[in-house]
Amino acid sequence: MYIRNNMKISIIDIGTNSIKHSVFCIRNKKKTLISYERFSEVNLGSNRDHIEPDTADKIFATLRAYKERNDEVGVEKTRLVGTDILRTADNALKFTERVEKLFGVPVEVISHEREGYYLYRGLRDVVPEGTIFGAINCGGGSIEIVIGDTSELIDNILIPFGVNALRKQFGSKDDPNTVDWNGLETYLEQEMNVGRTTLDYFFLSGVYDFLNIAGRAIGFEYDSCDIRDHPIKTDTPTYSQHADVIKRTAIETLRDAYPKNPKYADNFAIGEMVYYTAVKKLGVEEVIPSPYEYTDGLIAEMIE
């Protein structure tokens, strides 16, 4: 894909729980984020095996708005990418054909392995040369944990469940604030086989915005971080305390603390339990909340 200087590129990530829209400007083979939107009001993967028609219609309306936004800001190239729900739903092809007709470009349904690779690739360029780093992303349908250095991906740990399955197994149908936290913790300890290693940096993918806004609103404080595009970090004991506070905070309070996308708060505490389990098992001493997602790896691959 040819990329010229000052070109605007859009990446639309069709995930299991969220639809994310990023617009970047590429200058001198470096990206600048112009805008970012995450829409979590409609759960595309409420049924992992099938996309319900009314849900598809609502998501399509959101995608149409993203298309209009791209036209307004002068986007020249759009890349549509799908993950777990588009790998598993029996009617995914019907959905993607409709989206492709709107944008005029194909929907790329990437493998779980490729999703992990792109998570690594997006962060590789921001860490100092010669360091070893790790990152974790917990989505609605799957979890990726990657370990690498600035030259290669060393380990790509792929876990075939996400917050949707965990919510269904350990949450209450009647009360979204009710979760069997002890059962969830035991399950994650058994099912997340990540080993133990020495890392210079460990990134929590995609959670920076929520923690920086909602976390501060409920009293969290952070240390400064010197990694490019990653202004905050915290030590593991403090992160453990933060995860416990989020667990005990009503979802309605978390929604109010994050008005730009309130629905994102609904499964955040479960996701934090996943992240903290990985932190404990890996023996990480501090964590860096990251705004980066696997889409940053897509962009890095396009402009390298």
How would you characterize this protein structure?
It is a single chain. With 304 residues, the chain is α/β, with parallel strands linked by helices. It folds into two domains: 103 residues, ATPase, nucleotide binding domain (Nucleotidyltransferase, domain 5, 2-Layer Sandwich); 175 residues, 2-Layer Sandwich (Nucleotidyltransferase, domain 5). Helix content is 41%, strand content 26%. The chain is built from eleven helices and twelve strands. The strands form two sheets. It has a seven-stranded mixed β-sheet, sandwiched between helices. Strand 2 and strand 3 form a beta hairpin. It starts with 6 loop residues before the first strand and ends with a helix. The model has no long low-confidence stretch (mean pLDDT 92).
Write a short abstract of this structure.
This protein is an alpha/beta fold. It has helices spanning about 55-75, 85-90, 90-105, 110-125, 165-170, 180-190, 210-215, 235-250, 250-255, 270-280, 295-304, and strands spanning about 5-15, 20-25, 30-40, 75-80, 105-110, 130-140, 145-150, 155-160, 200-205, 225, 230-235, 285-290.
